TrEMBL record:
<comment type="similarity">
    <text>Belongs to the sulfotransferase 1 family.</text>
</comment>
<dbReference type="InterPro" id="IPR027417">
    <property type="entry name" value="P-loop_NTPase"/>
</dbReference>
<dbReference type="Pfam" id="PF00685">
    <property type="entry name" value="Sulfotransfer_1"/>
</dbReference>
<feature type="domain" description="Sulfotransferase">
    <location>
        <begin position="59"/>
        <end position="315"/>
    </location>
</feature>
<keyword id="KW-0808">Transferase</keyword>
<dbReference type="GO" id="GO:0008146">
    <property type="term" value="F:sulfotransferase activity"/>
</dbReference>
<protein>
    <recommendedName>
        <fullName>Sulfotransferase</fullName>
        <ecNumber>2.8.2.-</ecNumber>
    </recommendedName>
</protein>
<dbReference type="InterPro" id="IPR000863">
    <property type="entry name" value="Sulfotransferase_dom"/>
</dbReference>
Amino acid sequence: EELSSAEAIERVVEFMSTLPTENGWNSFQPLRLYEGFWTFPHFLESIILAQHRFKPKPGDIFLCSAPKSGTTWLKALSFAIVTRNLYDTSNSPLLTKGPHHCVPNMVGFEYKPDVRQPGIPLIPTHAPYHCLPKSVLGSDDVKVVYICRDPKDAFVSMFHFAANRRPKENEHIAIEEAFELFCLGRSVFGPAWDHILGYWKASQERPEKVMFLKYEELMNDSELYVKKLAEFIGYPFSFEEEQGGVVKKLIDLCSFENLSNLDVNKTGKRHEDDDEATNKTFFIKGKVGDWQNHLTPEMANRLDNIVEQKLSGTGLSF
Ligand code: A3P
């Protein structure tokens, strides 16, 4: 049965209202529980619509992540890799548009199958692996790249992000309270460890289709992992490019240092109707281990223990 977009959205909204709901970290944004994960209704709407309506094209590349785990960076790097023959590092759209504009979120793509930008087959999503459209999970022509991050850093980043994005009249949640919720799995796309595990297992089972990256590894050896990424998504660097320093240039273009200092990422808006500059909320510190400045050793231990227990026997650790 082909529904119109408006009808489909209406049905999804109706369905969502039947799901378990809890307050998120901001009372103005409730979290809904869907297929084992908590998330905001606007994310959920596009995930459910995609499950019903998304039609993959050969060569599509899904860029997947839990929030605050390196989404912006992965978007920038993948965009730079895929478009490197169209632009050089002096005229890349990344210099004037910002990563989330260059690779827009797919809110909306479910109703307009052709929102892919020509030549840029990148489709970002925060959906857990098992919530990706069946058409994607079953496809041999679609690649999935996942980036994850030490949950301690992802938590701290999420805490800051939520503080920056809340309406000014709202008091911000205390870090202890947010931490408690995070440990219970009640965060955007929480439980965080289950999000990671879904993609980890998929990458073990289908290594040629699902690539698993860690923010920390990408930071420590950018050159190695950017080369792997390029190869995996089907845009490998040639010997000449490697010799000519193209990889290094691309890494520098996408570095936190470079991107966070561009005007567009300091003062630009992500959506036209945003009241304030929102691009800058995606660039906070860009460091590994910032949790040490915000979590007590007890908090860190507690989260480490949860994560270790959940990941035990899987071959994955942080
Ligand atoms: P911090 O809050 O630790 O600084 P996401 O992109 O998934 O929303 O994650 C945001 C986190 O990635 C923030 O972490 C942000 O500073 C960091 N980040 C953004 N752009 C980056 C880049 N180009 N390189 C490294 N880290 C980046």
